[in-house]
Batch of 3 targets.
Target 1
Amino acid sequence: MTLQTVGIHNLTRPISIKTKRGTIQQTVATIDLDALLPHERSQSCIEVMMPLLAEYAEDIHVGVLPDLLLTVREQLQAKEAQLAMTFPYFINKTAPVSATSSLMEYQCTLRGTSTKRSSPLIRVSVPVTTLCPCSKEISKAGAHNQRAEVTLTVQPTGFLWLEDLIQLVEESGSCQLYSLLKRPDEKYVTEMAYDNPMFVEDVARMVALKTRHLPGIEWFSVGVESFESIHKHSAYAYIDSNDLNDISN
């Protein structure tokens, strides 16, 4: 019986991520590492993969994935190796009025393959506020708003900071989210959202337009899910950059 793929799934390990501020952030990643094996291998995948993951864990970024995966492929004599690494990333944010400081968590994923034709992917999941334009238009006072989750996946040709991708998304909703707000901050963010009503389609288009103008992006996708406050269902929108070729800047 021929095995097609072997590997490690749901491995939890501490990793170190360089921040844009020049510091090192310690976090915990859930790792999937697979090798496509065309024939019998001489070594156990565990014996190869575990030491390599430990070696690279001190400096994980999208630039190291090709070397790591190439080494896995060569040592296992595999046709291809692929990795997905998901981890929480924390950014210290300041409330807009009171300047109260608090940590915001963002789920991030690095995904790569050993094939030369495919560069690694970076994915960030960022919460934002959306306020319904229809609700604002038909209501005498107020409008329903809700939290939305924006998932931006990019395939860069060079280095990108996670902070820059997260900031791009946060600036594309009705308003940003914060972990801790004082009363003056609550007033600010609710009024900010009210002044910037957006459907999920609007948020997806805004993120796509900004991402499209980033230098060195081969491909990207944007998914936006709004957890509706007056409906049991969610609203969703998705854009693939391959479908934007016929749209003018």
Target 2
Amino acid sequence: MENVTATEFKVPTREDVAPINQEIFDNLNKALGFVPNLYATIAYSENGLKRFLDYQNAKTSLSNKEKEAVNLVVSQVNECVYCQSAHTVLGKMNGFNDAQLLDIRKGKSDNPKLDALVKLAADITLNRGKANNETVEYFFAQGYTKENLVDIILQISDKTAMNYLHNLTKVPVDFPLAETL
């Protein structure tokens, strides 16, 4: 196997990827108007992009707003600039304002239920799954269930995979950075 450094990672084009990924690129272009660089990078794997998108788009007990809060705090903990940028934009699209997004990146929220979610997501990420008992109890005390706990862990795994991929490959960020954040 060849030795490749992160600086050698180029974002593959439609012509560079397998036919199954070309079809996914076409669908992403129709839905989003572009293929995000990190998704394109996953397409180095013939089966990886479809597998990842199926996982990412699976049903969950978390709302889109809750998913974005988890995505943003996990990306902050994992120091992934690409995903911080993407989930700042997506967070705004899901109803968060700049102050709320900044708080989430700091691992807190003025909404007690969201605060419990964000604190647990950060704790799980920081401690590789070994969350503090008080943080877990706070999560349950805010009305979350065991189903929600499983879904938050799955959401963290989704985002951690993307964070690690970007932190290693350093492909260009193709989401606008929030200048005020």
Target 3
Amino acid sequence: MRYGQGVALVLAAGSLWSLMGLGLRQIEAASVWQILFWRSVGMVPVLLAFVWWRSGGQPLMTIRQVGLAGVIGGLGLVFAFAGAIHAIQTTTIANAVFLFTASPFVAAILGWILLGEKVRPWTWATIALAVAGMYLMVREGLEMGAASGNIAALLSAAGFGAFSVALRWGRLSEMLPVSLLGGLFSALVAAGVLAVQGQPIAPSAWDIGISTGIGALILALGMLCYTLGSRVIPAAELTLLSLIEVLLAPLWVFVFLGETASAATFAGGGVLLAAVSLNAVMGARAHMAQGLAKAP
């Protein structure tokens, strides 16, 4: 695969994921756990089929290879998926997706604490800048009663951060089996929570169709594109390219639903995007300098 094809695939993944909020806005009455269950039902068969194809008809062997790190990463995705759904349902799309971009910084901190990975000085500086941006965003949300949505968005970011750290801890180069485990765990957890709460597992046919469609067409296909594209693109550049999701998600709900966000959300989001972009650019420069140093 060529570099340009990889870029196109990663941009396609981010564009698909940016439709998540617009899709969830079509849900009529389903709860977070009902959505999570049926979205996982839609996602798992698509990922399983691709893992089956990539493994030459031996998906169980491929899944077993991810080991404990894959299990922990899959559990991290449960928090990421459930938190994202609740955040999008209880706050604006712009507020939610901007807070989701905290995941690289969560990964950096967890990697430093759990894996002893060195965090460069400029990374700490961008983390501080990101915290300032998040404060600008959530301060108004807390005053308006959107605390649970903001907390859920940050938990979602933490879940994705844990997912990333688990991949590094296990030296996993293949993400799809871990994402598949995340979908399976999400379905099991959602079914368990619904049983404990005494809620029916099946909402309306409309909500089931929307949820499974999001899982199969937006989440799973986006993951496939991202996984294929990531094979020829450095991680720092992936971070930059993935920002298209953050930029497009508020645009879709504004164009099609007329949903906008406060000035504080866009101001804080701008600071947060600047922090993420700066971190990615500095990482790319460090990667290039390291490559030049190793060159004969």
